[in-house]
Amino acid sequence: MSDAEHEPRLLDSGEAALVVEFGSTVDPDISDRVLALDDALGADPPEGLRERVPTYRSLMLHYDPLVLDRETLVARVRTLAAQTSARAGTATLWTLPCCYDAPHGEDIGQVAERTGLSPDAVVATHAGATYRVYMYGFAPGFAYLGGLPKTLAVPRRASPRPPHPRNAVVIGGGLAAVATVPMPTGWYVIGATPARLYAPERDESFFVGAGDLIRFEPVDAATFAALDAREAAGERVARREEVRR
Amino acid sequence: MTALVVEAAGPGLTLQDGGRHGYLRYGITAAGPMDPLMHATANRAVGNPLDATAIEVSTGGLTVTAERGAVGIAMVSRSFRIALDGAALPDAVAVTLEPGQTLTVRAGASGAWGYLAVRGRIDVAPVLGSTATHTRSGLGGLNGRGLAAGDRLPVAEARPGEVSPHRLIAPWLDRDPKEIRVVLGPQDDYFAPDQIAAFLAGPWTVSPRGDRMACFLDGTPLKHAKGHDIVSDGVAMGAIQVPGNGLPIILMADRQSTGGYPKIATVIGPDLGRLAQAQGGTLLSFRSVTVAEAVAARRAERDTLREPVPREPVVRTDLASDFLLGLNLVDGVTDGRA
Protein backbone atom coordinates (compact mmCIF):
# COMPACT_ATOMS: atom_id res chain seq x y z
CA MET A 1 0.00 0.00 0.00
CA SER A 2 1.40 3.39 -0.89
CA ASP A 3 1.74 6.32 1.46
CA ALA A 4 -1.15 8.01 -0.28
CA GLU A 5 -3.73 5.44 0.77
CA HIS A 6 -3.14 5.71 4.52
CA GLU A 7 -5.16 7.86 6.85
CA PRO A 8 -3.33 11.15 7.33
CA ARG A 9 -1.25 11.62 10.47
CA LEU A 10 -2.36 14.53 12.61
CA LEU A 11 0.57 16.29 14.27
CA ASP A 12 0.37 19.29 16.58
CA SER A 13 2.68 22.23 16.06
CA GLY A 14 1.86 23.94 19.31
CA GLU A 15 -1.71 24.67 20.41
CA ALA A 16 -2.58 26.81 17.39
CA ALA A 17 -1.43 24.76 14.39
CA LEU A 18 -2.25 21.27 13.21
CA VAL A 19 -0.24 19.46 10.54
CA VAL A 20 -2.24 17.01 8.43
CA GLU A 21 0.48 14.80 6.98
CA PHE A 22 -0.37 12.58 4.02
CA GLY A 23 3.16 11.31 3.41
CA SER A 24 6.82 12.16 3.66
CA THR A 25 7.84 12.35 0.00
CA VAL A 26 7.33 14.52 -3.08
CA ASP A 27 4.60 12.63 -4.93
CA PRO A 28 1.71 13.85 -7.12
CA ASP A 29 -0.77 11.48 -5.43
CA ILE A 30 0.13 12.79 -1.99
CA SER A 31 -0.06 16.37 -3.28
CA ASP A 32 -3.51 15.60 -4.73
CA ARG A 33 -4.78 14.56 -1.31
CA VAL A 34 -3.24 17.62 0.36
CA LEU A 35 -4.87 19.93 -2.16
CA ALA A 36 -8.22 18.11 -2.07
CA LEU A 37 -8.41 18.64 1.70
CA ASP A 38 -7.27 22.23 1.25
CA ASP A 39 -10.12 22.79 -1.25
CA ALA A 40 -12.69 21.12 0.96
CA LEU A 41 -11.74 23.17 4.04
CA GLY A 42 -11.56 26.34 1.94
CA ALA A 43 -15.07 25.78 0.58
CA ASP A 44 -16.56 25.73 4.07
CA PRO A 45 -13.98 26.84 6.62
CA PRO A 46 -14.83 26.31 10.28
CA GLU A 47 -14.88 29.52 12.30
CA GLY A 48 -11.48 30.03 13.90
CA LEU A 49 -9.47 28.46 11.08
CA ARG A 50 -6.98 31.21 10.24
CA GLU A 51 -4.67 29.89 7.53
CA ARG A 52 -4.25 26.82 5.35
CA VAL A 53 -0.72 26.15 4.11
CA PRO A 54 -0.43 23.33 1.58
CA THR A 55 3.04 21.81 1.13
CA TYR A 56 4.32 18.86 -0.90
CA ARG A 57 3.06 16.32 1.56
CA SER A 58 1.05 18.02 4.28
CA LEU A 59 -1.50 20.72 5.01
CA MET A 60 -0.72 23.01 7.93
CA LEU A 61 -3.81 24.51 9.55
CA HIS A 62 -3.30 27.57 11.74
CA TYR A 63 -6.27 28.09 14.05
CA ASP A 64 -7.38 30.11 17.04
CA PRO A 65 -7.86 27.47 19.74
CA LEU A 66 -10.06 29.83 21.78
CA VAL A 67 -12.56 29.85 18.90
CA LEU A 68 -12.04 26.43 17.31
CA ASP A 69 -11.10 23.62 19.65
CA ARG A 70 -8.73 20.92 18.50
CA GLU A 71 -11.27 18.07 18.73
CA THR A 72 -13.73 19.88 16.46
CA LEU A 73 -11.02 20.62 13.93
CA VAL A 74 -9.68 17.06 14.02
CA ALA A 75 -13.16 15.60 13.51
CA ARG A 76 -13.76 17.87 10.53
CA VAL A 77 -10.39 17.01 9.00
CA ARG A 78 -10.91 13.26 9.42
CA THR A 79 -14.36 13.41 7.82
CA LEU A 80 -13.22 15.50 4.87
CA ALA A 81 -10.02 13.48 4.34
CA ALA A 82 -12.06 10.28 4.13
CA GLN A 83 -14.51 11.82 1.64
CA THR A 84 -12.02 13.47 -0.68
CA SER A 85 -9.20 11.41 -2.11
CA ALA A 86 -8.34 13.50 -5.15
CA ARG A 87 -9.36 16.76 -6.72
CA ALA A 88 -12.16 16.34 -9.19
CA GLY A 89 -13.12 18.31 -12.29
CA THR A 90 -10.86 20.68 -14.12
CA ALA A 91 -7.52 22.25 -13.36
CA THR A 92 -6.34 25.74 -14.20
CA LEU A 93 -3.47 25.81 -16.70
CA TRP A 94 -1.39 28.97 -16.95
CA THR A 95 0.85 29.69 -19.91
CA LEU A 96 3.68 31.96 -18.81
CA PRO A 97 5.89 33.67 -21.40
CA CYS A 98 9.52 32.86 -20.62
CA CYS A 99 12.67 34.35 -22.11
CA TYR A 100 15.55 31.87 -22.03
CA ASP A 101 17.88 34.18 -24.02
CA ALA A 102 20.61 36.44 -22.68
CA PRO A 103 20.63 38.18 -20.32
CA HIS A 104 17.81 36.20 -18.66
CA GLY A 105 18.89 32.56 -18.99
CA GLU A 106 22.30 33.21 -17.53
CA ASP A 107 22.94 29.71 -16.13
CA ILE A 108 21.81 27.70 -19.20
CA GLY A 109 25.42 27.01 -20.16
CA GLN A 110 26.13 25.46 -16.75
CA VAL A 111 22.96 23.34 -16.93
CA ALA A 112 23.98 22.18 -20.41
CA GLU A 113 27.41 21.14 -19.08
CA ARG A 114 25.95 19.25 -16.14
CA THR A 115 23.22 17.47 -18.12
CA GLY A 116 25.15 16.83 -21.35
CA LEU A 117 22.33 18.49 -23.32
CA SER A 118 22.85 21.34 -25.76
CA PRO A 119 21.61 24.76 -24.58
CA ASP A 120 18.79 24.55 -27.14
CA ALA A 121 17.80 21.13 -25.85
CA VAL A 122 17.72 22.48 -22.28
CA VAL A 123 15.24 25.14 -23.43
CA ALA A 124 13.17 22.74 -25.51
CA THR A 125 12.99 20.23 -22.66
CA HIS A 126 12.01 22.82 -20.05
CA ALA A 127 9.46 24.49 -22.31
CA GLY A 128 8.02 21.14 -23.41
CA ALA A 129 6.86 20.06 -19.98
CA THR A 130 3.75 20.81 -17.96
CA TYR A 131 4.37 21.66 -14.32
CA ARG A 132 2.23 21.51 -11.24
CA VAL A 133 2.44 24.12 -8.49
CA TYR A 134 3.09 22.00 -5.40
CA MET A 135 3.40 24.80 -2.90
CA TYR A 136 4.66 28.26 -2.11
CA GLY A 137 7.34 28.83 0.49
CA PHE A 138 10.79 30.18 1.21
CA ALA A 139 9.96 33.71 -0.01
CA PRO A 140 6.90 35.71 -1.09
CA GLY A 141 5.39 34.13 -4.18
CA PHE A 142 8.20 31.56 -4.56
CA ALA A 143 6.36 28.76 -6.38
CA TYR A 144 7.74 25.23 -6.15
CA LEU A 145 6.90 23.30 -9.32
CA GLY A 146 6.89 19.55 -9.92
CA GLY A 147 7.09 17.94 -13.33
CA LEU A 148 10.64 18.80 -14.37
CA PRO A 149 11.82 16.21 -16.94
CA LYS A 150 14.43 13.89 -15.39
CA THR A 151 17.00 14.86 -18.02
CA LEU A 152 17.10 18.32 -16.40
CA ALA A 153 17.54 17.00 -12.86
CA VAL A 154 20.72 18.69 -11.62
CA PRO A 155 21.57 18.97 -7.92
CA ARG A 156 21.40 22.41 -6.40
CA ARG A 157 24.70 24.28 -6.04
CA ALA A 158 26.75 23.64 -2.91
CA SER A 159 26.96 27.37 -2.31
CA PRO A 160 24.57 30.08 -3.56
CA ARG A 161 25.15 32.12 -6.69
CA PRO A 162 24.71 35.94 -6.60
CA PRO A 163 21.16 37.32 -6.47
CA HIS A 164 19.01 36.87 -9.58
CA PRO A 165 16.52 39.47 -10.86
CA ARG A 166 12.87 39.08 -9.91
CA ASN A 167 10.63 36.55 -11.64
CA ALA A 168 13.52 34.23 -12.44
CA VAL A 169 12.68 30.81 -13.83
CA VAL A 170 14.96 28.37 -12.02
CA ILE A 171 15.71 24.64 -11.73
CA GLY A 172 17.60 22.59 -9.16
CA GLY A 173 17.38 19.43 -7.11
CA GLY A 174 15.00 17.82 -9.58
CA LEU A 175 12.46 20.63 -9.21
CA ALA A 176 11.56 23.78 -11.06
CA ALA A 177 10.45 27.08 -9.54
CA VAL A 178 9.56 30.66 -10.26
CA ALA A 179 11.59 32.87 -7.93
CA THR A 180 9.70 36.17 -7.67
CA VAL A 181 11.99 38.08 -5.33
CA PRO A 182 15.69 38.80 -6.04
CA MET A 183 17.93 36.74 -3.77
CA PRO A 184 21.07 34.60 -3.75
CA THR A 185 20.16 31.05 -4.69
CA GLY A 186 21.49 27.53 -5.04
CA TRP A 187 19.20 26.99 -8.04
CA TYR A 188 20.18 27.53 -11.70
CA VAL A 189 18.62 30.52 -13.45
CA ILE A 190 17.53 29.43 -16.94
CA GLY A 191 15.10 32.20 -17.84
CA ALA A 192 12.71 34.88 -16.68
CA THR A 193 9.00 35.42 -17.03
CA PRO A 194 7.40 38.84 -17.37
CA ALA A 195 4.32 37.43 -15.60
CA ARG A 196 4.28 38.60 -11.98
CA LEU A 197 3.15 35.75 -9.76
CA TYR A 198 3.57 38.08 -6.80
CA ALA A 199 2.49 41.71 -7.01
CA PRO A 200 1.65 43.10 -3.56
CA GLU A 201 0.62 46.45 -5.08
CA ARG A 202 -2.21 44.82 -7.06
CA ASP A 203 -5.62 44.02 -5.66
CA GLU A 204 -5.12 40.40 -6.66
CA SER A 205 -1.57 39.99 -5.39
CA PHE A 206 -1.36 36.33 -6.37
CA PHE A 207 -3.16 34.63 -9.20
CA VAL A 208 -1.61 31.16 -9.40
CA GLY A 209 -2.79 28.76 -6.72
CA ALA A 210 -1.25 25.57 -5.37
CA GLY A 211 -2.45 22.73 -7.60
CA ASP A 212 -2.59 24.88 -10.75
CA LEU A 213 -0.65 23.78 -13.83
CA ILE A 214 1.99 25.86 -15.61
CA ARG A 215 3.61 25.78 -19.05
CA PHE A 216 6.39 28.06 -20.23
CA GLU A 217 6.23 29.60 -23.71
CA PRO A 218 9.60 30.76 -25.10
CA VAL A 219 9.77 34.43 -26.13
CA ASP A 220 12.73 36.50 -27.30
CA ALA A 221 14.24 39.33 -25.29
CA ALA A 222 12.39 42.06 -27.22
CA THR A 223 9.05 40.34 -26.61
CA PHE A 224 9.97 39.89 -22.96
CA ALA A 225 10.64 43.62 -22.64
CA ALA A 226 7.31 44.49 -24.28
CA LEU A 227 5.36 42.06 -22.08
CA ASP A 228 7.20 43.26 -18.98
CA ALA A 229 6.11 46.82 -19.77
CA ARG A 230 2.50 45.66 -20.10
CA GLU A 231 2.70 43.94 -16.71
CA ALA A 232 4.21 47.09 -15.23
CA ALA A 233 1.16 48.97 -16.51
CA GLY A 234 -1.11 46.57 -14.61
CA GLU A 235 -1.99 44.09 -17.35
CA ARG A 236 -1.67 40.33 -16.91
CA VAL A 237 0.23 38.58 -19.67
CA ALA A 238 -0.22 35.00 -18.44
CA ARG A 239 -2.86 33.06 -20.39
CA ARG A 240 -5.41 31.02 -18.47
CA GLU A 241 -7.41 27.98 -19.55
CA GLU A 242 -9.29 25.22 -17.80
CA VAL A 243 -8.20 21.68 -18.63
CA ARG A 244 -9.34 18.21 -17.53
CA ARG A 245 -7.25 16.70 -14.76
CA MET B 1 -1.55 66.15 11.13
CA THR B 2 -0.03 65.35 14.50
CA ALA B 3 3.02 63.17 14.11
CA LEU B 4 5.75 61.37 15.95
CA VAL B 5 9.17 62.25 14.62
CA VAL B 6 11.97 59.73 15.04
CA GLU B 7 15.04 61.65 16.23
CA ALA B 8 17.28 58.61 16.76
CA ALA B 9 16.72 54.96 15.96
CA GLY B 10 18.71 51.87 16.87
CA PRO B 11 18.70 48.86 14.57
CA GLY B 12 15.62 46.67 14.73
CA LEU B 13 13.09 49.47 15.20
CA THR B 14 9.90 48.61 13.26
CA LEU B 15 6.17 49.20 13.11
CA GLN B 16 4.16 46.10 13.97
CA ASP B 17 0.46 45.37 14.14
CA GLY B 18 -0.97 41.95 15.02
CA GLY B 19 0.59 40.41 11.90
CA ARG B 20 -0.16 39.79 8.25
CA HIS B 21 -2.49 36.82 8.28
CA GLY B 22 -3.97 34.84 5.41
CA TYR B 23 -1.02 34.73 3.01
CA LEU B 24 1.25 32.05 4.45
CA ARG B 25 0.03 29.80 1.64
CA TYR B 26 1.73 32.20 -0.79
CA GLY B 27 4.98 32.33 1.14
CA ILE B 28 4.17 35.58 2.94
CA THR B 29 5.46 35.67 6.51
CA ALA B 30 3.04 36.91 9.17
CA ALA B 31 5.63 39.11 10.94
CA GLY B 32 3.87 40.94 13.83
CA PRO B 33 5.25 41.55 17.34
CA MET B 34 8.04 39.44 18.83
CA ASP B 35 6.28 39.71 22.21
CA PRO B 36 2.57 39.59 21.35
CA LEU B 37 1.47 39.95 25.00
CA MET B 38 3.53 43.09 25.63
CA HIS B 39 2.41 44.58 22.29
CA ALA B 40 -1.23 43.93 23.20
CA THR B 41 -0.69 45.37 26.68
CA ALA B 42 0.66 48.63 25.24
CA ASN B 43 -2.33 48.91 22.92
CA ARG B 44 -4.73 48.07 25.76
CA ALA B 45 -3.17 50.81 27.88
CA VAL B 46 -4.12 53.48 25.31
CA GLY B 47 -7.54 52.02 24.56
CA ASN B 48 -6.68 50.71 21.09
CA PRO B 49 -7.59 47.37 19.53
CA LEU B 50 -5.05 44.85 20.82
CA ASP B 51 -3.63 44.31 17.33
CA ALA B 52 -3.23 48.01 16.43
CA THR B 53 -0.01 49.36 14.92
CA ALA B 54 2.67 50.15 17.51
CA ILE B 55 6.41 50.83 17.43
CA GLU B 56 8.50 47.82 18.38
CA VAL B 57 11.68 49.02 20.08
CA SER B 58 14.72 46.76 20.20
CA THR B 59 17.67 47.10 22.56
CA GLY B 60 18.96 49.60 19.99
CA GLY B 61 16.59 52.16 21.50
CA LEU B 62 14.57 55.10 20.24
CA THR B 63 14.35 58.86 20.59
CA VAL B 64 11.06 60.39 19.48
CA THR B 65 9.32 63.76 19.66
CA ALA B 66 5.77 64.90 19.06
CA GLU B 67 5.04 67.43 16.33
CA ARG B 68 2.03 69.76 15.89
CA GLY B 69 -0.16 68.17 18.56
CA ALA B 70 -0.07 66.29 21.84
CA VAL B 71 -0.09 62.48 21.72
CA GLY B 72 -0.96 60.22 24.61
CA ILE B 73 1.32 57.21 24.56
CA ALA B 74 2.04 54.02 26.43
CA MET B 75 5.64 52.83 26.41
CA VAL B 76 5.78 49.32 27.80
CA SER B 77 8.95 47.34 28.48
CA ARG B 78 10.74 45.41 31.16
CA SER B 79 13.80 47.22 32.49
CA PHE B 80 14.25 49.56 29.53
CA ARG B 81 15.35 53.05 30.61
CA ILE B 82 12.68 55.52 29.59
CA ALA B 83 12.90 59.28 30.03
CA LEU B 84 10.79 62.32 29.13
CA ASP B 85 12.91 65.40 28.43
CA GLY B 86 15.65 63.72 30.45
CA ALA B 87 13.52 62.87 33.48
CA ALA B 88 13.45 59.14 34.21
CA LEU B 89 10.13 57.32 34.00
CA PRO B 90 9.07 53.79 34.98
CA ASP B 91 9.77 51.00 32.46
CA ALA B 92 6.05 50.75 31.67
CA VAL B 93 4.40 54.14 31.54
CA ALA B 94 1.48 56.11 30.12
CA VAL B 95 2.13 59.78 29.49
CA THR B 96 1.34 62.60 27.10
CA LEU B 97 4.00 63.81 24.71
CA GLU B 98 3.43 67.52 24.20
CA PRO B 99 4.72 69.04 20.97
CA GLY B 100 8.46 69.45 21.28
CA GLN B 101 8.85 67.02 24.17
CA THR B 102 11.32 64.18 23.69
CA LEU B 103 10.93 60.60 24.83
CA THR B 104 14.04 58.44 24.97
CA VAL B 105 14.09 54.65 25.29
CA ARG B 106 17.32 52.76 26.01
CA ALA B 107 18.06 49.10 26.70
CA GLY B 108 18.16 47.97 30.31
CA ALA B 109 19.33 45.06 32.39
CA SER B 110 16.79 42.65 30.95
CA GLY B 111 14.30 42.39 28.14
CA ALA B 112 14.88 42.61 24.41
CA TRP B 113 11.76 44.36 23.11
CA GLY B 114 9.46 47.19 24.16
CA TYR B 115 6.35 48.71 22.57
CA LEU B 116 5.20 52.27 22.07
CA ALA B 117 1.47 52.59 21.38
CA VAL B 118 -0.36 55.87 20.74
CA ARG B 119 -3.78 57.29 21.54
CA GLY B 120 -4.98 57.48 17.96
CA ARG B 121 -3.72 55.54 14.96
CA ILE B 122 -0.25 55.44 13.45
CA ASP B 123 -1.32 56.24 9.91
CA VAL B 124 0.65 54.08 7.49
CA ALA B 125 -0.90 52.19 4.58
CA PRO B 126 -1.52 48.49 5.12
CA VAL B 127 0.02 46.05 2.62
CA LEU B 128 -1.82 42.76 2.15
CA GLY B 129 -4.12 43.78 4.98
CA SER B 130 -1.46 44.61 7.57
CA THR B 131 1.04 47.26 8.61
CA ALA B 132 3.43 44.69 10.13
CA THR B 133 6.98 45.28 8.87
CA HIS B 134 8.82 42.35 7.32
CA THR B 135 12.14 43.88 6.33
CA ARG B 136 13.46 40.80 4.52
CA SER B 137 10.72 40.99 1.92
CA GLY B 138 10.30 44.77 2.18
CA LEU B 139 6.65 44.61 3.22
CA GLY B 140 4.62 46.82 5.53
CA GLY B 141 5.51 49.51 8.04
CA LEU B 142 7.19 52.53 6.51
CA ASN B 143 8.16 51.47 2.96
CA GLY B 144 8.91 47.95 4.11
CA ARG B 145 11.91 48.95 6.22
CA GLY B 146 12.93 49.61 9.79
CA LEU B 147 12.48 53.11 11.19
CA ALA B 148 15.36 55.58 10.91
CA ALA B 149 16.19 59.04 12.23
CA GLY B 150 14.14 61.65 10.41
CA ASP B 151 11.10 59.42 9.84
CA ARG B 152 7.77 61.08 10.49
CA LEU B 153 4.85 58.92 11.61
CA PRO B 154 1.48 60.65 11.16
CA VAL B 155 -0.92 59.95 14.03
CA ALA B 156 -4.56 60.06 12.95
CA GLU B 157 -7.15 61.01 15.57
CA ALA B 158 -4.33 61.83 17.99
CA ARG B 159 -5.44 62.79 21.48
CA PRO B 160 -3.66 63.50 24.73
CA GLY B 161 -3.73 61.06 27.60
CA GLU B 162 -2.52 61.32 31.18
CA VAL B 163 -1.51 64.84 32.18
CA SER B 164 1.25 63.50 34.43
CA PRO B 165 3.14 60.23 33.91
CA HIS B 166 1.42 57.09 35.22
CA ARG B 167 3.13 53.81 35.94
CA LEU B 168 1.38 50.90 34.20
CA ILE B 169 0.91 47.95 36.54
CA ALA B 170 1.19 44.82 34.41
CA PRO B 171 2.55 42.00 36.58
CA TRP B 172 1.70 39.50 33.82
CA LEU B 173 4.71 40.85 31.99
CA ASP B 174 7.05 39.72 34.80
CA ARG B 175 7.92 36.49 33.07
CA ASP B 176 10.93 34.41 33.98
CA PRO B 177 12.62 33.26 30.76
CA LYS B 178 14.33 30.30 32.42
CA GLU B 179 11.64 27.73 31.64
CA ILE B 180 9.81 27.80 28.33
CA ARG B 181 6.73 25.63 27.79
CA VAL B 182 6.53 23.60 24.58
CA VAL B 183 4.25 21.10 22.89
CA LEU B 184 6.39 18.28 21.48
CA GLY B 185 6.33 17.77 17.72
CA PRO B 186 5.46 17.85 14.91
CA GLN B 187 8.64 15.82 14.19
CA ASP B 188 9.62 14.63 17.67
CA ASP B 189 9.69 11.11 16.18
CA TYR B 190 12.96 12.11 14.48
CA PHE B 191 14.60 11.97 17.92
CA ALA B 192 15.20 9.11 20.39
CA PRO B 193 13.66 9.46 23.88
CA ASP B 194 17.02 10.27 25.49
CA GLN B 195 17.49 13.12 23.01
CA ILE B 196 14.02 14.51 23.77
CA ALA B 197 14.95 14.44 27.47
CA ALA B 198 18.25 16.18 26.73
CA PHE B 199 16.41 18.79 24.69
CA LEU B 200 13.98 19.56 27.52
CA ALA B 201 16.59 19.61 30.29
CA GLY B 202 19.13 21.77 28.49
CA PRO B 203 20.35 24.04 29.79
CA TRP B 204 20.55 26.06 26.58
CA THR B 205 22.19 29.45 26.23
CA VAL B 206 20.41 32.06 24.12
CA SER B 207 22.87 33.18 21.45
CA PRO B 208 23.32 36.94 20.98
CA ARG B 209 23.00 36.52 17.18
CA GLY B 210 19.22 36.11 17.28
CA ASP B 211 16.89 38.51 15.49
CA ARG B 212 13.22 38.78 14.53
CA MET B 213 13.57 35.68 12.37
CA ALA B 214 15.03 33.21 14.84
CA CYS B 215 16.40 32.58 18.31
CA PHE B 216 19.56 30.44 18.22
CA LEU B 217 20.50 28.20 21.14
CA ASP B 218 23.96 27.05 22.17
CA GLY B 219 24.53 23.89 24.21
CA THR B 220 25.23 20.18 23.79
CA PRO B 221 24.19 19.23 20.23
CA LEU B 222 21.23 16.88 19.83
CA LYS B 223 21.45 13.72 17.72
CA HIS B 224 18.89 12.87 15.06
CA ALA B 225 17.55 9.33 14.87
CA LYS B 226 16.30 9.63 11.27
CA GLY B 227 18.50 12.25 9.62
CA HIS B 228 18.07 15.99 9.53
CA ASP B 229 16.37 16.60 6.20
CA ILE B 230 12.64 16.38 5.74
CA VAL B 231 10.50 17.31 2.76
CA SER B 232 9.49 20.90 3.55
CA ASP B 233 6.34 21.44 5.56
CA GLY B 234 4.66 24.35 7.29
CA VAL B 235 6.34 26.29 10.10
CA ALA B 236 4.46 27.87 13.01
CA MET B 237 5.89 30.75 15.08
CA GLY B 238 7.77 29.11 17.95
CA ALA B 239 8.65 25.95 16.01
CA ILE B 240 12.00 24.58 17.19
CA GLN B 241 13.94 23.08 14.31
CA VAL B 242 17.09 21.05 14.75
CA PRO B 243 19.41 21.32 11.74
CA GLY B 244 22.39 19.07 11.02
CA ASN B 245 24.64 20.61 13.69
CA GLY B 246 22.17 19.56 16.41
CA LEU B 247 21.71 23.05 17.87
CA PRO B 248 18.05 24.11 18.09
CA ILE B 249 16.79 27.19 16.26
CA ILE B 250 13.46 28.66 17.37
CA LEU B 251 11.63 30.29 14.46
CA MET B 252 10.07 33.59 15.42
CA ALA B 253 7.89 36.33 13.91
CA ASP B 254 9.86 36.85 10.68
CA ARG B 255 10.34 33.14 9.96
CA GLN B 256 9.82 31.62 6.53
CA SER B 257 6.43 29.99 6.00
CA THR B 258 7.86 26.51 5.33
CA GLY B 259 11.06 24.69 6.19
CA GLY B 260 12.97 21.48 5.73
CA TYR B 261 14.45 20.54 9.13
CA PRO B 262 12.75 18.32 11.74
CA LYS B 263 10.93 20.34 14.38
CA ILE B 264 11.31 18.68 17.77
CA ALA B 265 8.78 20.91 19.57
CA THR B 266 6.86 24.18 19.36
CA VAL B 267 6.88 26.97 21.97
CA ILE B 268 3.32 27.60 23.16
CA GLY B 269 1.78 30.94 22.20
CA PRO B 270 1.73 32.39 25.74
CA ASP B 271 5.50 31.77 26.11
CA LEU B 272 6.61 33.33 22.80
CA GLY B 273 7.09 36.72 24.43
CA ARG B 274 8.80 35.19 27.46
CA LEU B 275 11.33 33.65 25.06
CA ALA B 276 11.64 36.70 22.81
CA GLN B 277 12.56 38.85 25.82
CA ALA B 278 15.53 36.65 26.76
CA GLN B 279 18.74 38.56 26.08
CA GLY B 280 21.82 36.83 24.68
CA GLY B 281 23.51 34.73 27.35
CA THR B 282 20.27 33.79 29.13
CA LEU B 283 20.16 30.15 30.29
CA LEU B 284 16.91 28.30 29.67
CA SER B 285 15.29 24.89 29.61
CA PHE B 286 12.00 23.59 28.25
CA ARG B 287 8.96 21.93 29.81
CA SER B 288 6.63 19.74 27.78
CA VAL B 289 2.91 20.52 28.21
CA THR B 290 -0.22 19.19 26.56
CA VAL B 291 -2.24 21.10 23.98
CA ALA B 292 -5.01 21.46 26.60
CA GLU B 293 -2.60 23.03 29.09
CA ALA B 294 -1.33 25.41 26.42
CA VAL B 295 -4.88 26.44 25.50
CA ALA B 296 -5.67 27.08 29.20
CA ALA B 297 -2.61 29.35 29.43
CA ARG B 298 -3.74 31.17 26.29
CA ARG B 299 -7.22 31.67 27.76
CA ALA B 300 -5.78 33.06 30.99
CA GLU B 301 -3.65 35.46 28.95
CA ARG B 302 -6.66 36.69 26.99
CA ASP B 303 -8.62 37.26 30.19
CA THR B 304 -5.75 39.35 31.58
CA LEU B 305 -6.34 41.97 28.92
CA ARG B 306 -10.13 42.16 29.31
CA GLU B 307 -9.87 44.96 31.88
CA PRO B 308 -8.05 48.28 31.51
CA VAL B 309 -4.39 48.14 32.48
CA PRO B 310 -4.15 49.43 36.09
CA ARG B 311 -2.04 52.56 36.57
CA GLU B 312 -0.90 54.86 39.33
CA PRO B 313 0.63 58.32 39.28
CA VAL B 314 4.39 58.37 39.26
CA VAL B 315 5.59 59.76 42.58
CA ARG B 316 8.89 61.52 42.88
CA THR B 317 10.71 58.71 44.66
CA ASP B 318 10.15 56.61 41.54
CA LEU B 319 12.39 58.97 39.65
CA ALA B 320 16.08 58.41 39.17
CA SER B 321 18.38 59.84 41.80
CA ASP B 322 20.07 62.13 39.29
CA PHE B 323 16.70 63.75 38.70
CA LEU B 324 16.21 64.22 42.43
CA LEU B 325 19.73 65.59 42.76
CA GLY B 326 18.90 67.93 39.92
CA LEU B 327 16.03 69.27 42.00
CA ASN B 328 18.47 69.49 44.90
CA LEU B 329 15.81 68.54 47.40
CA VAL B 330 13.67 65.66 48.51
CA ASP B 331 10.51 67.40 49.41
CA GLY B 332 8.98 64.97 51.82
CA VAL B 333 7.04 62.81 49.36
CA THR B 334 7.42 59.22 50.39
CA ASP B 335 6.71 56.01 48.57
CA GLY B 336 3.25 55.14 49.86
CA ARG B 337 3.68 51.48 49.03
CA ALA B 338 6.74 50.97 51.24
From TrEMBL, chain A:
InterPro entries: CT_C_D, Cyclophilin-like_dom_sf, PxpB. Residues 8-208 form the Carboxyltransferase domain. Keywords: ATP-binding, Hydrolase, Nucleotide-binding, Protein kinase inhibitor. GO terms for molecular function: ATP binding; hydrolase activity; protein kinase inhibitor activity. Pfam families: CT_C_D. The keyword Hydrolase applies. SMART domains: AHS1. PANTHER family: 5-OXOPROLINASE SUBUNIT B. This is KipI family sensor histidine kinase inhibitor. The lineage of its organism: Bacteria, Pseudomonadati, Pseudomonadota, Alphaproteobacteria, Hyphomicrobiales.
UniProtKB/TrEMBL annotation, chain B:
Gene3D superfamilies: Cyclophilin-like. Keywords: ATP-binding, Hydrolase, Nucleotide-binding. InterPro entries: CT_A_B, Cyclophilin-like_dom_sf, PxpC. NCBIfam families: urea_amlyse_rel (TIGR00724). One of its GO terms (molecular function) is hydrolase activity. Residues 25-305 form the Carboxyltransferase domain. This is Biotin-dependent carboxylase-like uncharacterized protein.
